[in-house]
Design brief:
Shape: elongated
Oligomer: single chain
Order of helices and strands: HHHEEH
Distance between the termini: 40 Å
Strand content: 5-15%
Number of strands: 2
Number of helices: 4
Helix content: 40-55%
Structural class: alpha+beta
Radius of gyration: 25 Å
Number of domains: 2
């Protein structure tokens, strides 16, 4: 599915659920009673309430694209393992860079 279409559908769903949540909150009924009366699964109401809250508060999970570097002409000259984390050192790395990597790994 086209990504922009997914965004539109998600936004539409969020608006619909936002309206339902508002109607539930402004009614004099308990959440359980309102959901029963409006044929809305209580778990769905809480799911969308949490999802909308996370989006509004900026806590929504997001994915980040990580670019994969183009293969270089460098060769692995050593493999360094500190605290269970392994790093391959490539040819052309300086002693200063190696020291910085080791210091960073020791903090993990």
């Amino acid at each position: 599915m086209d990504n922009s279409l997914q965004i539109v559908n998600t936004n539409r769903e969020m608006q619909e659920w936002s309206n339902k949540i508002q109607a539930c909150r402004s009614s004099s009924l308990s959440v359980r009673a309102w959901c029963r009366e409006n044929n809305v699964p209580i778990s769905s109401l809480y799911y969308w309430q949490r999802k909308i809250f996370n989006r509004v508060s900026g806590n929504e999970s997001q994915f980040a694209e990580i670019p994969v570097p183009v293969k270089s002409n460098f060769e692995a000259i050593a493999r360094l393992t500190v605290n269970g984390i392994a790093v391959e050192l490539l040819s052309g790395i300086s002693a200063t860079e190696i020291a910085e990597i080791i210091a960073g790994l020791k903090q993990c």
